[in-house]
Recover the amino acids of this structure.
């Protein structure tokens, strides 16, 4: 059985390390030594349902549109 999950994707080519997303989503993102966001689960971070609104806020508020939410289906 497959399920759709929400994932947060970080586009590192667009990001300039302002860090707003790490402040909005500390449960999912941390900053590296240069201030860039790093997902606690890798480049594409699974977003638990209770954090969906905060993840959408991070996407909407990113000044360089370096974040994207997408639904993925996993088996």
């Amino acid at each position: 059985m497959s399920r759709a999950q929400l994932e947060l994707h970080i586009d590192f080519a667009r990001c300039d390390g302002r860090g707003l997303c790490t402040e909005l989503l500390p449960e999912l993102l941390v900053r590296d030594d240069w201030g860039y966001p790093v997902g606690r689960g890798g480049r594409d971070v699974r977003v638990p349902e209770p954090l969906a609104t905060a993840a959408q806020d991070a996407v909407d508020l990113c000044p360089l549109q370096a974040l994207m939410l997408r639904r993925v289906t996993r088996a």
In short: The mean pLDDT is 91.
